[in-house]
Amino acid sequence: MLQVISVSFDELSLPSSSSGSCEDAAVTLYDGATSKSASLGSFCQHTNATITSSGSAVFVVFESRVLDNDAGGFALRWSFVDERSGRSYSIGVVSVYSLTPY
User: Fold this and answer.
1) Statement: residue 70 has pLDDT above 70
2) How crowded is the C-beta side of 98, counted as CA atoms within 13 Å?
3) Domains plus CATH for the chain?
4) Mapping DSSP to helix (H, G, I), strand (E, B) and coil, where does residue 3 land?
5) How large is the average pLDDT for residues 34-51?
6) Rounded distance between C-alpha atoms, residue 40 and residue 56, angstroms
7) What's the distance, CA 31 to chain centroid?
8) CB 81 within 8 A of CB 51
9) Which DSSP string do the residues of 5-61 spell out, in sequence order?
10) pLDDT on residue 46
11) What is the mean pLDDT of residues 1-10?
């Protein structure tokens, strides 16, 4: 069974710079098991998009330059998708709301 991973954000509210970019805090998803894999995108504000990997691994990196416990956070949901049948199997939710600068 060929499986891919589907990721969506239940919540995504991170500080953004004055220009609106994600340079102050971001969640970056990679299409594989390491940060050397191809990027699936960097996110800092809510998106309704569902991000799908090309294989059975997604590497998640959360980075923040902001030290403020009231600055928001994120919750992402992931599931395995059987590409042949199209069936989705919910795996879990990850939530992060404590921001620590890198």
Assistant:
1) no
2) 0
3) 3-96 (2.60.120.290)
4) strand
5) 91
6) 14
7) 11
8) no
9) EEEEEEEEE----TTS-SSSEEEEEESSSSTTSPEEEEE-B----EEE-SSS--EEE
10) 78
11) 85
Report the predicted TM-score, pTM, of the whole model to 2 decimal places.
0.81
| Tokens coding 91 | 């795996």
In DSSP terms, 79 is beta-bridged to 6, 90
Q: From edge to edge, which strands make up the β-sheet containing 25-30? A: 39-43, 25-30, 59-64
Q: Are strands 25-30 and 39-43 parallel, antiparallel or unpaired?
A: antiparallel
- Total residue count of the chain as it appears in this document: 102
Taking the alpha carbons at both ends of the chain, their separation in whole angstroms is: 39
Please name the residues in contact with 6: beta carbons below 8 A apart, sequence gap of 6 or more. Answer: 50, 51, 52, 53, 78, 79, 80, 81, 88
Residue 87 amino acid letter: R
